[in-house]
Amino acid sequence: MRESTRLYGFTNTENMARLRNCLRGEAREVILALLFTAKDPADIMRTLEQCFDRPEVIIDRALDDLKRLPLPDQTAQELNSFAIKLQNIVCIMQNVDGKGYL
Fold this sequence. Notes:
Blueprint: H1 2-8, H2 12-22, H3 25-30, H4 32-37, H5 41-52, H6 55-68, H7 76-98
Helix pairs in contact: 6-7
């Protein structure tokens, strides 16, 4: 949200509307009262980060995905598919590490 706000110049009111429209399920339940009382979307984002920002879960899932990757056979298509999946997992790990979690 911070990047899109900076890039497109969204106001707090516009960001609050965006949050009201996009949040579903447990995330919406956690901040339901704030959704209609808060004036600053940063308050909602802090609450969501406190509840759901779990880098260790992201890392564990990425490592599990890596362990479950089947080894590619001899075709170029399977090798390419394997390389893309591996590249995505590496990207996840680098992004999480970029936040200082690893």
